[in-house]
Amino acid sequence: MGLFKEGGEHQIQNLGNDKYNLTISIPENDDGRMARECPSSECSPGYFKVTLGTGITENHTLAYCPYCRHEAEPNDFATQEQIRYAKEMALREAHKGVQDMVRNAFGIGASGKKKLSEGFVSMEMTYKPAALPYVHRPFEDEVRRDIVCPHCTLDQTVFGLATWCADCGEDIFLSHIEAELAVVQLMLNDVDRRQTQFGKRIAAKDLENCLEDTVSIFEAAMRAIVRRAMLMRRDSADQIESSFKKLGNAFQSIDRTQKELNSLFGKNPLDEEVSEKLKSAFEKRHPITHNLGVIDRKYMERTKELEQEGREIRLSVAEISQALSDVKTAISGTYEKLIKG
Ligand SMILES: [Zn+2]
Ligand SMILES: [Zn+2]
After folding, report:
1. How far is residue 172 from each of residues 67, 148, 160, 176, 338, measured CA to CA in Å?
2. pLDDT, tens digit (0-9, with 9 covering 90-100), for 212-236
C-alpha cells in the first residue's frame, strides 16, 4: 500500500516508483480573486490578482505579468504563499497516509481498537492518531486597483500603474489611466451632496483632494511613460536612474514637464492648447499642498495677479472635471508619441 490513497478531493494519482500527482486547489479570496506572482525575481511589484472565470477561460496556455510582460504557463504564476499552502496540503495528505499504514499494519479497525489475543491475557492496543496539522489559508495583501481588460474581459487587480493584461498580454495602460481618472470624477460628482450634508469646509477640502489626485495621476502616468520610452530606446538602468533623480517632481508642473520631455526626447509631446489649460489648474494646487491649505504671501500676490487678469482662483467642480479630461488627453497624446510613435 502506498503513502497516498488514489482519488479523493486531491484527485491523487499513483504514478509508480513512489511518485504521486496531487491536485491542490488554491482557495480564492471572498471576492473570487486569486493572487498571482511574477516568476521573474527582478519584477516589481510582481504581485497581482485575477478573477476566476473572467478573461481567457479555455485553452489558456500562456499568461503574462502585468508589470514586465514576462510570459509563462498560468501555473507558473503561483505565489510563494500558494506554493507553501500546496506543500502543506500534500504533507497533510501524507500524514493521513502514514496513519492509515499504521492502522493497517496492526489491523486496527475504524474504532481504533484491536483485541490482540483471546488467551489468558487479553490485551488491547489503541492507536490514537495525532490531530492533522492545521493548514493556513494563503495570506495575501490587500488589493489596490481593479481593472477589466477591454480585449479579453479579464478582471484583474494590480498595484501601481500596470501596463499589460495578465491573460491576453495586450497593452492596457490607458485603460488603467481612465479607471484612475474615473475614480476622481466619481468623488467630484459627490461634492455637492457632501456640501449640503457637511458644509463648505468639507466640500472645499474634497475639491483640493480631487485636484491633488488629478495632478498625482498625471505625474505617475508621465513617469511610467518616460521610463518605458527610455527602456524602449535601450537606455541603461543607470542612465534611467540618474534621469529620474534629476526629474524629481517635475511632472507636477506643466512648464517643467514640457522642459524635461524636450531635454529627454528632443520633442515636447504635450498638446499646446491642453497644456495651457492644465497650467492654470495645476498652479492652483501649489499653496494647498505646500502650506497645508494656509495661503502664503507669495500665493496672495499670485492670486492678486490672477484676479487682475480676471481669472477665478477658487476651485470648482467644473474646473477639476475639465482638468481630468485634459489630463486624459495629455497622457494619451504623450503615450501615442513616445510609446506608439
Ligand atoms: Zn513581472
Ligand atoms: Zn486581456
Report:
1. 11, 9, 13, 7, 16
2. 999 999 999 999 999 999 999 999 9
- 339: which DSSP letter? I
pLDDT confidence bin for 262, thresholds 50/70/90: very high
Q: Residue 204 and residue 188: Cα distance in Å, rounded?
A: 11
| DSSP reduced 3-state for 330 | helix
Of the listed ranges 11-20, 51-60, 257-266, 308-317, the least confidently predicted one is 308-317
Phi and psi of 197, rounded to 5°?
Answer: -80, -40
CB under 5 Å of ion ligand 1: residues: 38, 40, 43, 65, 67-68, 70
How many angstroms does the Cα of residue 153 sit away from the middle of ligand 2?
A: 6
Does the pTM surpass 0.85? The reply is: no
Interior CA angle at 223 toward 221 and 226, to 5°? Answer: 105
